[in-house]
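Sorry to interrupt, but I need a hand with the structure work. It will help me judge whether the discrete encoding reads sensibly. Write everything out right here, beneath this request:
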Amino acid sequence: MTFLQSILERKKQEAKDLPEMTTLSPTEKSMTESLRKMKPALIAEVKPMSPSEGTLMDLTDLPRILRIYNIRAQAISVLCDNATFGGGYDLLSVVRTMTDLPILAKEFIVSEKQIRRARHAGADAILLIAAMLTKQEAQTLAEQADALGMSVLFEIHEEKEILSIPALSSDSLVIGINNRNLKNLKIDLETTKNLAPKIRSLYPEHLLLSESGIRTGSDIATLSLSIDGFLIGTTFLKSSDAKATMAELFPSIS
């Protein structure tokens, strides 16, 4: 069983056990609108740990990290998976109190119950992963998020997954290219370089982001030629001076 298959089975069960959330107000914060304010745009990530890197942050350090993120980021991503990444909806709720930026619920979403739980916790956007969903499932979940006013970051890794991109407007849907293969967890930045032109030809109006493995100013400069922004977490969280790393990757803040 691959990493992604094991996650999928666990998430289906977790989703069944989630409480029903009712009477939710639509979000007033648009992640897509916020991302359009800066190029390259940045979604900075709160991720307590990861399978490849181990522990990445102490939650007592959260206020300092968010102060740094708030300087340059256009949105904040919060890991909502606890078993593998040490996150959760409770963590998202805490982050909500520390930033006015739109928040992306970074979760392996397979059910509307997860979307509604994320919105209840204060999320303004959700992640949907092509490799975990059928085309119809992706469309249905994207529409359910859109009905709550939430943006959708739709993540692909392979060319065939372009066919699964949901039919939502460019005001609601952002397309992400994950440089990490979720089957074996290997990273290759060539994934963005290869897929970006193909996606651009079909979705010229949609924002296009690169995710995973962005570590240097050179990575930013090179990939910015073909995409609109980045989702970055580990590089900041592993740094001994996250503010300096932020300024190195995005010199306009220095």
